[in-house]
Amino acid sequence: MEDSSIALKISVLICLCIAQYFLTSCYSTLAPFYPVLAIERGVSSLTVGFVLASFALVSVIVSPLFGSSVAKFGSKFIFCLGCAIAGFSTLLFGCLGFINDPLAFTIFSFVLRILQACGVQAGNTASVVIVFQLFPHNVAFILGVSQVFAGVGLITGPTLGGFLYTVHGYAVPFAVLGGILLMTVLFSMCLIPDFKGERTMEKGDICPILGMVGILLSMLLRTVTAIEITFLDSTLQLALIQIDITDPAVVGMLFLIAGLGYGISAPIWGLIGDKWDIYKELNLFGLGIGALGYMFIGPSPLLNLDSDNIGIMATGLTLMGFGVGAIITVIPDMVNIAIENGHEDSLALYGVVSGLYYSAYNLGMFIGPVMGSILFDELGFPWSCSIVAAVVAGTFAVYALYVGIYRCLQLMSATKEVNSKESELEMSSEPFYESIENARSNKPSNGYANEDEYDSEKNPFFTSPNNYSSADSRN
Question: Would you list the DSSP string of 375-390?
Answer without folding.
Answer: HHHHH-HHHHHHHHHH
